[in-house]
Design goal:
single chain, eight-stranded mixed β-sheet, alpha+beta, 382 residues
Length: 382
């Protein structure tokens, strides 16, 4: 048990281990990571669908994804450890006038910042995603540099690389309090003892608000349950099958092992930390999946689970110092996109904390933006 650290990172998911690695690489000093569970990544990270994409409607989100995809693609060079980024692409299928207009604007923004994204006609869809029912689909966007990854692989890579750089990772260690004196953090209380430190980095995902409240402040992050279903083996699923999103229904799906993964964000779910499986939610996912891919009628359900999104009012992350307590630094609120933004988030957070100009301008992700009368909403959320 360390008695002193230069920074304490709270949360051992993919965001926390990424931040800890980059802080150590940037020579911030002694970095300690706290995780209350017996293993890292057992919260939102292990429940993630594994999608990695840059097709957003917000410029900062696009740039964060492009930076992350660059790092994912050269992950061994970055960390010294292997992890596979399967760049099979992401496809958004569009049926309604309003969605076509919205995605066309996003497409133009994405192209303007250098993203390799295309607008497809319906007859071009099967070459990327065979077996999709084309009824009603009028256009689609496709980016070949998007794709899929195993969150556990990338988390393990960051964990090992962080340890090699001197990060102290403390599992089964719960944060019980944050000491604040004279408007500054002086240390943390944990289930294994106290640690004196001047900086706390809040990477607690769906529980980030509780961390802020321990320090006598607050951030608008709500935990929202989402569910996923996986199928048994399916002979028709090709190795190049991308992540496909039916924008009208909200269904998303991609190849998973020898079958498929299916998910949907139910807008009626209220904030809570409940991760029990709702059978009606599962049925709603399967109904939407059958409409998009009729051949799934032959599929068997292999597994299903529920996890938590960490949602902000504008569906964009919070990265930066707390406006009321600058020694509390937030890296949270990714609204379902934490895994795909983890490399960029860790890097820009470490650069900011060490006084460097971040690789992506994260001014619009500052925690103090919620004081504004109008927020810039990320609309491409699934």
């Amino acid at each position: 048990m360390l008695e002193k650290a230069d920074a304490v990172v709270v949360g051992g998911g993919i965001i926390g281990v990424s931040v800890a690695f980059y802080l150590a690489r940037e020579k911030y000093g002694q970095v300690v990571l706290l995780e209350k569970e017996t293993l890292l990544g057992t919260g939102a990270t292990c429940k993630a669908a594994g999608g990695i994409r840059a097709q957003f409607s917000d410029k900062t989100n696009i740039q964060m994804s492009m930076l992350s995809e660059e790092i994912f693609a050269r992950f061994k060079d970055e960390t010294g450890h292997e992890a596979l980024f399967d760049q099979v692409g992401y496809m958004f299928c569009l049926k309604d006038d309003a969605d076509i207009e919205r995605f066309t604007k996003s497409y133009e923004l994405q192209k303007s910042v250098g993203l390799n994204v295309s607008m497809l006609k319906p007859d071009e869809i099967p070459q990327h995603a065979p077996h999709i029912a084309l009824d009603g689909i009028r256009q689609a966007t496709f980016c070949p540099t998007d794709g899929l990854g195993d969150p556990a692989e990338f988390l393990t890579g960051y964990e090992k690389a962080g340890r090699e750089l001197g990060v102290k990772i403390m599992i089964e260690t719960e944060l019980n309090g944050i000491n604040v004196e004279g408007g500054k953090i002086t240390g943390v209380k944990t289930s294994r003892g106290d640690i004196a430190c001047p900086t706390v980095v809040d990477c607690a995902g769906p529980l980030s608000r509780f961390v802020a409240q321990m320090a006598g402040t607050d951030i608008p992050v709500e935990p929202i349950r989402r569910q996923i279903v996986t199928t048994g083996p399916l002979e028709f699923v090709k190795p190049f099958f991308p992540m496909v999103v039916d924008v009208k229904s909200g269904l998303y799906c991609h190849k998973e092992s020898k079958g498929m993964l299916l998910g949907w964000a139910d807008p009626a779910v209220e904030p809570s930390t409940d991760i029990s499986i709702d059978p009606d939610y599962t049925d709603a996912i399967l109904e939407r999946a059958l409409d998009l891919i009729p051949q799934l009628e032959e599929a068997e359900v292999a597994n299903q689970w529920a996890g938590l999104y960490e949602v902000t009012p504008d569906h964009r992350a919070i990265i930066g110092p707390n406006p009321e307590l600058s020694s509390l630094f937030h890296v949270t609120g990714f609204s379902g996109h934490g895994f795909m933004h983890a490399p960029a988030a860790g890097l820009v957070a470490a650069q900011t904390l060490t006084g460097q100009a971040p690789a992506v301008d994260i001014g619009s992700l500052s925690p103090d933006r919620f004081k504004d009368a109008e927020l810039s909403i990320e609309t491409n959320v699934i």
